[in-house]
Amino acid sequence: MVAAMSNSGGLDIIGPNAGQDAPPKNRQDSLDKMRAEIRKTKSLTDKPFGATLINGPDLSFWRPTVQMLAEEGVSAVLINEVLDPEIFDFFKQHGIKTMYRALTPTVANSQEAERLGADMIIATSFDEGGAVPSRVIGTFTIVPMIADSVNIPVVATGGISDVRGVRASFALGAEGVYVGSGFIVADECPADEKVKQLIVNSTAEDLILFLTLPAYYRTLPTENGKKLAELEAQSASREEMFEAMDSYHSLWQGMRLGNSDKGVVSVGTGVSMIKAVRPASEIVADLMQDFV
Ligand SMILES: Cc1cc2nc3c(=O)[nH]c(=O)nc-3n(C[C@H](O)[C@H](O)[C@H](O)COP(=O)(O)O)c2cc1C
Question: Which residues of 230-267 are buried (b: 16+ CB within 10 A; e: fewer)?
């Protein structure tokens, strides 16, 4: 999937659980598989691609991850959340571009990322799929807000699934777009085929929003998604919600395995504009048609 994107002129990001044939056994297992996926991607493309660095409070894990990404020579790293000068400096010294992405982007964290040397800011809105920002700010507001506050390029994300979203993003001050949900239906994406059809046949009106701390998620109405919505309506405890989300394995169950009873299918509001399962190259060509 990542190689197909790079070969089509996009720049994809290898996720933290790339290459997992099951939920990771432990962090080392996750790291080893991510390294293997990076090597596999390098064997399939000469073009640049990136990787994600998900930071947590446990420094013992992200230091080895940072080291591995530099050893493997990825072109760009998406830094989630943590604003640590050491990490930005390390990547700069290794000639690796940094994209800063806070779950909830703010003027303050964007300016701090710029000060630390980030090469670009990903301005994520409440319209996105996956874990959504804690502030209810849509793409139309977050993009100009962040673009006006920094001097480095801003990349718009959330609800962008066709060329109209790309044009709007650039009109709002973005210099790139970051698309998630729209590529789940790519031929090369290892999501379950029934799930791809469900996405194609759904609209934003079908989406369920629920809270599993620390973040809100959206899902199409799988059986598990409906259960999560019911639990939330009953003001279920954090533990009950987390259990129903199967400690986050719901994304794996719902999207990779297509298990409606155990899983969620998380996509952004741009699901309304996703109309067909097709090669990643066609999706990139459609989105970027103004730039050829
Ligand atoms: C199922 C799913 C899982 C995601 N997981 C992550 C993640 O682990 N880390 C991350 O930074 N973003 C994650 N995202 C967010 C995407 O990177 C991206 O910001 C988002 O999908 C863009 O909005 P869109 O889906 O409306 O195109 C996820 C998105 C989806 C749909």
Answer: ebbeeebeeeebeebbbeeebbbbbbbebbbebbbbbb
The atom number, within ligand 1, closest to the CA of 159 reads: 26
Is the dihedral angle over the CA atoms 167, 172, 176, 181 positive or is it negative?
A: negative
What is the domain class of 2-187+277-291 according to CATH? alpha beta
Q: Is the CB of 158 under 6 A from ligand 1?
A: yes
Local confidence band at 31 (pLDDT 50, 70, 90 cut-offs):
confident
| pLDDT tens digits, 165-212 | 999 999 999 999 999 999 999 999 999 999 999 999 999 999 999 988
- The domain ranges of the chain are 2-187+277-291, 208-266
Q: pLDDT of 34-84, one tens digit each?
A: 999 999 999 999 999 999 987 655 656 778 888 999 999 999 999 998 899
Helix residue spans in the chain (DSSP H): 2-7, 27-44, 59-72, 85-93, 107-116, 139-147, 163-171, 181-184, 193-200, 223-233, 238-244, 249-251, 280-287
pLDDT value of position 54:
73
Ligand 1 atom closest to Cα of residue 80: 11
Ligand 1 atom with least separation from CA of 16 = 8
CA of 129 relative to ligand 1 center, distance in Å:
5
pTM for the model stands at 0.94
Residue 156, ligand 1, Cβ within 6 A: no
Cβ of 124 closer than 6 Å to ligand 1, yes or no, is yes
Cα of 124 vs centre of ligand 1, distance in Å, is 9
